[in-house]
Design the sequence.
């Protein structure tokens, strides 16, 4: 037995002296995690001398880290064997809460990047907020979403180290708090590089006021504590916008300022006050606009704190920062009311004004530009995206089409001014979590054929291409998919008490609920299929299980209405004995990283059906591809690059392209589609004619109206559901027929998708950032 195993057993015996098989999941989890922490201790201490990249993000959606840490340390199988020897089920960790300090794609991307950075041996460290409560837990009551607090600390936090002596003070208008760092190791594959994710927790300067307490003012005695703790208390569950809330701005400033102060403190240890060297030592990536307040804050720290001139400080800021945009929709770009900004951050606002003045000056001396097009402060608001473009050296989009839209539309004026700043860096995902860990069966299949170097070099998957014509390989691939369906079915039965028919095709759409992602289009098409099967219009059909998962922001009524609608449709279909051997529909509850790890490997069809031009990239599309699902999707986000790689003939792409939608302009009249096409009318009418019920809330009526009449803030059918409806139904049916008629031929498509997934590794993405943006 080696030292690691001894430590695990030693830790266990401290928790439970006698019979290890009686240990609770939490006890086993603690014992193993602490043993790994001990194992990595000395490697983690060694500080890199090279230039460091810092990833500033309001969200890090890590999911469960125990498996990935064990895998990357090369301890996964060893640990599982050890547990088995002591009659402990190696699956115990599945009972341990996973953390959810993120909403969706943007937060999960940050987590994939950290894994890749450490694996590549780059010094890439994350900086964010240690929310006390992460994204809410979702349950359904009569088909409606209910939210509960996510108490991710219930199982303890063995992976974090509180660094009390590295705390920093953060000042707001009239209040000040401590920012206390909790550091988590980020273990690269092979365990050679261990980076850090530093999450800040807010705490009061004075936890308790005894004088007030003695005066029996109990509330006031803890008022400061409560106010301070509010700042890092909860992750905002919106993943687009909301009216500028002062607490949200406080959160953003809190972690931005704390991270910058800690970076400067570290820098000064080696370079004293030689701040010109800062850009040689640090690159800071701003993950969307959420940390963009870092820009005026670094100016302030350098000018007011270190006596640099504005122009010296500006030059440093511009070299240090770069900005990633994750959203196209202009209305989703963060803006703060000047009055709110000044109230919350009075000491920072003057630096925004200085930036604005510098910009004015620059534009003023350029006769070809209209100063009105370039204003960081306009209409009484501070525009964070504009500030980010102006004061950084790099702006990037997250897929080719997205970057093009940024250049041509969203940030057009800025692209005209600074074309050299714009880059595209298409997203990627880590194959360690999204293949090696979540699909061990497929991993083995791959390794048996091409060796295991794909784990750190995903382009190796190309070598699978010849197996597309090997019947035996295709047969095995089918068996693996079946096995993953069985595993998923067990899981869904345990979590949601619903029985999946694993003989069926699994057609999966999992992602945050959004009108632009068009879960409602999927539901409409399922209902149309149902009528088609019931009435005999559709004859040849391979039985299909339609799976949905995803959370709606608690204040987003339409998104919640769509969940309710899907659940109602599911009831209608699942209880109809005339069709329920041909189709079933389920909306799984509380979709999160762990659920994704079960769902994605079991999918045959990956639903990626956003309106063209709306989904910046998508990343689950890449995870599905890697796991051998074919994409049923639109010409949007990274779908375009997926079919570029794997071939359009191996996927199912449909619907209007961005250019077509643009050309259509004001001439789109969804009512005409509604009136002319009975199938469209029928699914639309299901919202209002009693086919299904919203329980009296009126939300179905609202959805119906929003499509046919629009609303004060948008025109009718803003996301073109009715335009794409028939092409979608047709394509979906064609895909089904392909599966039905020739399984081998279909599986060949799956294999070719896997074989061409190489570029969608976040290893490629992070290497590109390192080279083209961070100059590491
Ligand atoms: C903004 C203001 C106020 C409150 C919340 C927010 C907020 C929070 C989260 C705005 C946006 C987000 C998250 C956005 C997000 O996840 N975007 C996704 O990013 C992925 C990674 O690049 C892309 O693949 C997806 O296409 C994109 O939707």
Sequence:
């Amino acid at each position: 037995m080696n030292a690691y195993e001894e430590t695990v057993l030693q830790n266990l015996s401290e928790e439970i002296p006698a019979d290890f098989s009686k240990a609770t999941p939490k006890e086993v989890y603690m014992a193993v995690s602490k043993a790994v922490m001990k194992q990595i201790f000395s490697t983690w201490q060694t500080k890199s001398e090279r230039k460091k990249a810092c990833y500033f993000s309001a969200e890090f959606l890590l999911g469960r880290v125990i498996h990935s840490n064990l895998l990357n340390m090369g301890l996964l199988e060893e640990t599982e064997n050890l547990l088995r020897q002591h009659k402990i089920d190696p699956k115990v960790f599945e009972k341990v809460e996973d953390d959810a300090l993120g909403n969706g794609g943007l937060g999960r991307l940050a987590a994939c990047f950290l894994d890749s950075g450490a694996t590549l041996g780059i010094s890439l460290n994350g900086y964010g907020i240690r929310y006390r409560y992460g994204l809410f837990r979702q349950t359904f009551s009569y088909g409606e979403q209910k939210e509960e607090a996510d108490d991710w600390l219930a199982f303890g936090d063995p992976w974090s180290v509180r660094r009390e002596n590295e705390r920093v003070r953060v000042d707001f208008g009239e209040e000040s708090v401590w920012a206390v760092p909790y550091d988590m190791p980020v273990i690269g594959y092979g365990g050679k590089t261990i980076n850090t994710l530093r999450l800040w927790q807010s705490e009061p300067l004075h936890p308790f006021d005894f004088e007030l307490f003695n005066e029996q003012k109990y509330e006031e005695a803890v008022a400061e504590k409560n106010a301070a703790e509010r700042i890092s208390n909860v992750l905002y569950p919106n993943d687009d916008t909301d009216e500028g809330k002062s607490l949200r701005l406080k959160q953003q400033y809190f972690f931005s300022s704390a991270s910058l102060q800690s970076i400067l403190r570290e820098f000064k240890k080696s370079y004293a006050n030689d701040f010109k060297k800062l850009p040689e030592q640090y690159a800071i990536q701003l993950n969307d606009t959420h940390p963009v307040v870092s820009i005026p804050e670094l100016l302030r720290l350098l000018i007011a704190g270190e006596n640099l001139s504005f122009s010296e400080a500006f030059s440093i800021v511009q070299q240090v920062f770069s900005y990633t945009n994750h959203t196209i929709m202009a209305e989703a770009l963060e803006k703060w009311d000047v009055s709110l900004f000044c109230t919350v951050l009075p000491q920072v606002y003057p630096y925004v004004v200085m930036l604005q003045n510098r910009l004015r000056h620059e534009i003023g001396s350029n006769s070809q530009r209209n100063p009105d097009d370039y204003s960081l402060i306009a209409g009484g608001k501070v525009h964070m995206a504009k500030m980010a473009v102006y004061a950084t050296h790099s702006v990037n989009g997250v897929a080719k089409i997205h970057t093009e839209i940024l250049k041509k539309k969203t940030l057009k004026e800025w692209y005209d001014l600074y074309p050299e700043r714009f880059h595209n860096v298409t997203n990627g995902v880590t194959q360690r979590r999204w293949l090696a860990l979540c699909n061990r069966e497929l991993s083995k299949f791959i390794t048996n054929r091409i060796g295991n170097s794909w784990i750190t070099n995903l382009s190796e998957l190309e070598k699978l291409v010849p197996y597309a014509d090997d019947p035996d390989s295709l047969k095995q691939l089918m068996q693996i998919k079946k096995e993953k369906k069985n595993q998923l079915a067990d899981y869904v039965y345990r979590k949601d008490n619903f029985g999946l028919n694993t003989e069926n095709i699994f057609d999966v759409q999992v992602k945050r609920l959004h009108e632009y992602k068009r879960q409602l289009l999927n539901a409409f098409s399922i209902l149309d299929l149902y009528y088609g099967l019931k009435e005999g219009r559709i004859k040849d059909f391979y039985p299909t299980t339609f799976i949905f998962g995803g959370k709606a922001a608690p204040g987003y009524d339409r998104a919640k209405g769509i969940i309710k609608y899907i659940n109602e449709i599911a009831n209608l279909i699942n209880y109809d004995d005339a069709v329920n051997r041909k189709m079933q529909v389920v909306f799984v509850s509380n979709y999160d990283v762990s659920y994704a790890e079960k769902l994605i490997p079991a999918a045959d069809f990956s639903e990626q059906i956003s309106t063209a031009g709306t989904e910046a990239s998508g990343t689950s599309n890449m995870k599905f591809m890697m796991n051998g699902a074919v994409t049923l999707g639109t010409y949007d986000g990274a779908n375009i690059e997926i079919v570029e790689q794997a071939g359009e003939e191996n996927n199912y792409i449909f619907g209007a392209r961005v250019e077509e939608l643009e050309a259509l302009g004001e001439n789109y009249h969804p009512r005409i589609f509604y009136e002319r096409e009975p199938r469209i009318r029928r699914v639309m009418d299901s919202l209002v004619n009693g086919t299904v019920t919203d329980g009296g809330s009126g939300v179905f009526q609202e959805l119906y109206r929003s499509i046919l009449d629009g609303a004060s803030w948008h025109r009718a059918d803003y996301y073109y559901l009715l335009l794409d409806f028939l092409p979608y139904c047709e394509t979906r049916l064609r895909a089904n027929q392909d599966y039905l008629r020739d399984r081998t031929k279909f599986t060949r498509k799956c294999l070719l998708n896997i074989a061409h997934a190489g570029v969608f590794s976040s290893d490629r993405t992070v290497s590109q950032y390192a080279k083209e943006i961070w100059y590491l």
Notes: The mean pLDDT is 97.
